[in-house]
Backbone:
C-alpha cells in the first residue's frame, strides 16, 4: 500500500519529477551524480552544526533553524529523486533495513551503552 | 494533512522512534550527532558509485543494488530521526523549498543547460 | 622551494603515483572520481567521532586512534593524488588561501567569538 | 626526518597554528569538530564536480579551477590541524598506510581491473 499514488513519498516523487522535467535536467541525473549531490547537501546540513559545543537545538537560532529545515528538504529531494531513478521504494527499504538492524543490534545487548553502540556501528 | 498519523513519513518516524527507545539511544541523538551520522551514511551510499565510469544503474550489479537500497534506507532513517528531534515536517519542508527552487531556477532560463545549472547551483 | 623533489608533499605524490601506476589504476582517477573518494574517506574519518559526547581525544581508545590515523592517511592520499592530476601545488594553495582567510576573518574582529565564527563561516 | 621543522607539512602546521591562536579559536577545535569541518570542505570540493559528465579537468573552466584549488587548501588546512591536535605525523601515517595498501591490493591481482578494484574497496 506504500508508495500508493497518494502517499507522502509518492507525492514528493511526483513533485520533484515535474520540477526536473520542466527544466530538462533529467540528463544530468545519473545515479552517481545524484549520490554526489545528496552527499553535498548532507554536508551543507552538517555545516550548521560543526562548531556547536553541544549540538543541541537551543544552540541554533530561529534563522539557522529555517536554513537547517531547507537543507533537510534538499537531502530528501535528492534521495527521493535517486529512489525514482533506481526504482527503489523508500518506505519498503526502511522497513526491510529495520528488520536487519533489529538482528544486528539486539535491544537487550546494546541498551544505553555508548561503547557498545560504537563497536556495533563497525 | 501531511504527517497525519497514517502518512508514510509519520509511520517511519514512529518506527525509528520505537527502535531508538528500545535501545535507550535517544541520549546519543543530539541534532549534531544525527547530522554527522546522516553525512556518513550519504558517503557510504556514494562509495558504491565512486569508481563507476558513467554512474548508471547498469554498472551496478544486483548485489550492489541491494546494498545501495540499504544505504538509502539508512539515510532516510537518520533524516527522519533528525526531523523528529527538530520538529521539522519533512513533507512541508520540501514543498516550501520547492517554491524557493522555482524562483531560483526559472524553467525558461535554465532549461537543459548544464553550464547554467552549474552556475545556478552556486 | 615548495614541492621541490625532496619536500614531504612531493615525496607523497611520488609514492602514490608509483602505487597507482603499478596497478594501472590511473584510468579510474578522473578528478571527479578522486573528489568522490576524498569525500568518502573524510566521512569514514568522521564516523569514528559521530557518537562521542565531547569529541575529545580521550574519548577515542588507542585502537580507534590507529584507525583514525589510517583514515587521515587515506584522505591525504586522495588529496595528493587529486592535486597531481589537477597540477595543483598544495603548499602554495594553502599559503594563498591563508592570505584570503586573514582578510575574511580579521583577528581583532573574530577573536574567541563562536557566534561571529559561525556567521563568518557563512 | 619527516615533519622536521622545515618540512612542508610542519610549516603548514605552524602556519595554521598561528592563524588559530591569533583568533583564539583553539577552543572550537575539538577533534570531532575538525572532523566535521574536514568532511564539509571535502563536500564543497566535490560540489564543483557533481554535475560534470566525465569529471575531467577540461570540463572545469579557469575560474572553477581556482575555486577547486581553494577548496583543496581548506581540506588540507583542517587535516593538518586535526593531525596537530591528535599528534599524528601525516607523512609517517601515509607511509604506514601505503604498506597496508600494498598487502591489501597486490599489483598482480588487481591490475587494471575496475571490477576487482570495486570489490577490494569493500
Residues:
Amino acid at each position: 500500500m506504500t508508495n500508493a499514488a497518494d502517499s507522502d513519498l509518492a507525492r514528493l516523487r511526483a513533485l520533484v519529477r515535474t520540477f526536473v522535467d520542466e527544466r530538462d535536467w533529467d540528463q544530468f541525473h545519473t545515479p552517481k551524480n545524484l549520490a554526489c549531490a545528496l552527499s553535498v547537501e548532507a554536508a551543507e546540513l552538517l555545516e550548521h552544526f560543526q562548531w556547536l559545543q553541544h549540538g543541541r537545538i537551543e544552540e541554533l537560532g530561529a534563522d539557522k533553524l529555517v536554513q537547517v529545515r531547507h537543507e533537510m528538504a534538499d537531502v530528501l529531494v535528492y534521495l527521493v529523486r535517486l529512489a525514482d531513478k533506481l526504482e527503489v521504494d523508500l518506505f519498503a527499504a526502511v522497513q526491510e533495513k529495520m528488520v536487519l538492524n533489529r538482528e544486528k543490534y539486539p535491544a537487550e545487548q546494546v541498551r544505553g551503552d555508548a561503547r557498545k553502540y560504537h563497536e556495533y556501528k563497525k
Q: What stands out?
A: The radius of gyration of chain A is 18 Å. The CA atoms of residues 97 and 103 of chain A lie 10 Å apart. Chain A is about 70% helix and 0% strand. Chain A touches chain B through 72 residues (CB under 8 Å).
